[in-house]
Amino acid sequence: MSGRGRTVSVKVRLLSYNVRSLRDDPHALVRVIRACAPDVVCLQEAPRFFRWRKHAADLARRTGLVTVTGGAPSCGTMILSGLRAAVERTEETTFPLVRGEHRRGLAVAGLRFGREARLSVVSCHLSLRDAERRAQGEELLERVAAFDTPAVVAGDINERPTGATFRRLAGALTDARERAPVGGEFTFPAAAPRRRIDGVFCSDGVTALSCGVPTAPDSDDLAAASDHLPVLAVLSL
Hints:
CATH superfamily: Endonuclease/exonuclease/phosphatase
CATH class: Alpha Beta
Order of helices and strands: EHEHEEEEEHEHEHEEHE
Shape: globular
Largest sheet: 6 strands, mixed
CATH topology: Deoxyribonuclease I, Chain A
Number of strands: 12
Number of helices: 6
C-alpha cells in the first residue's frame, strides 16, 4: 500500500521453459534466458542426475539468477529467480509413481516482491499419459487452492489447450496466453513449432499483462537452445 492507502501493483516477468536437461546448445539457452530478462524462471527437465546441483548453479550464474528450489528432489522441475524476489518458503514434492512411467513432481516457492506483494510459484511437468496427467492436474489444483497467497502455475502440460487437463487448469485458473496473447503461440517442437503444450496459469490476485513465446531472442538461438520454446508472461500482482 502507499502512504494514502492506494494499492500499488507490482509487475513480475516469469519465464517457463523446458530445457531438456541442458542437452542442446547451452550457450544459446543462456542467451535466450538473459534476453527475456525474467524475475522468475520455472524450468522443466532441469538437471537432476550426476552433478545436477553444479549444472543448475552454473546455469543460474550465467543467466544472472539464483537457484531457489527443485532439481532431483522434484524430478527435474526447478525455480530460479532474480534478486528482486525474496524467498519466503520452498517445497519439492513428487506425484505418485505409476509403474512404467517417469516419476514427476512440483517445485514450489513462496516469493515476495517489495514489501507486500506475495506470490506462490509452481513449476510443473505433467505426464504424457492421459489418466496420469488428469490425476496430476487435480492434485496440482488442490495444492494451489491451499495457498494463502495468489499463485501462478507454469510448465509443460504435455497437452494442447483442447485437452481435458489443460481445459481443467484453464477453468480453475486463468490461462495467461488466452487472457493476454503477445508473441508466438506454439511451443513445440522448437525447430518447427505447431503445438501449444506449455502454459502459464494465474489464480485470483494475479493479472496477466502479456503471455507468449518471446520474439526478442534470436530465432536461431530459440531453435538451438532446447526442443521446447519458452513462454514469457508479464504479470501484475
